[in-house]
Amino acid sequence: MIPLARLKAFALLASLCVFSLPSPSLAEVTLSHSNDPEQALGFELTALLNQERAGFEHADADAIERLLASFKPKPKTSAAKAPKTLEYSKSFLESLPKASGDAEWQCLSEALYFEARGESVKGQFAVAEVILNRVKSGAFPNTICGVVHQGTGKKYQCQFTYTCDGHAEAIHEPAAFTQVGKVARLMIDGAPRALTQGATHYHTRAVNPRWARQFAKTAQIGVHMFYRMPQA
Hints:
By secondary structure, this protein is mostly helical. It has 8 helices and 3 strands; from the N terminus they run ααααααααβββ. The chain has helices spanning 4-20, 37-58, 61-69, 90-94, 103-116, 121-136, 144-148, 174-188, and strands at 201-204, 216-221, 224-228. Strands 1-3-2 form a 3-stranded antiparallel sheet, with helices on one face. Helix 1 (4-20) crosses helix 2, helix 5 (103-116) packs across helix 8 and helix 6 (121-136) packs across helix 8 (174-188). The relative contact order is 0.11.
């Protein structure tokens, strides 16, 4: 039995050939009201089948193959699936493929590298939470790159010190950057922000900024203290 898809292909090709061949005029098979309808219909079908046969005889073999190929089912492509569970461990990150992304991913990856590459995996996720919480807040720029580079230009007047400390921002530890790149990818893709309770600020234990006395402390992870800015 000829597969249905192949029959459809033949039918389509035949219809194309009918209109492309310089065969007898279709007027020759026009149904006449003066003839018996069933007999006239038989004549019409016979004429069309003859034209179809002639069409296949003149059709290019490559054209037939291309037409048949268009009816073949396309293989299903499996979309990349996000991990069902999130673990704050190096072994979990090592199990994931190397991450990549657009400018927003690059900005977040660099911020995590320069601000938290020496922290634990949980500490890196926590810093990423702060940056994304700022993006969501109306008090800060609404993009990751905007948040990371806010105030950059004047020495020590920026939000993230590495962008205005006067030192070149060079990646000297590619393995560390690969790790934080995976953290950035997970967070941008919607990983839960469950570590800092909506924190918008953080500082290391080596400093004691004035704003820390006015903001609610939400967490302490590694060397970083996390705070949530009061909402207006």
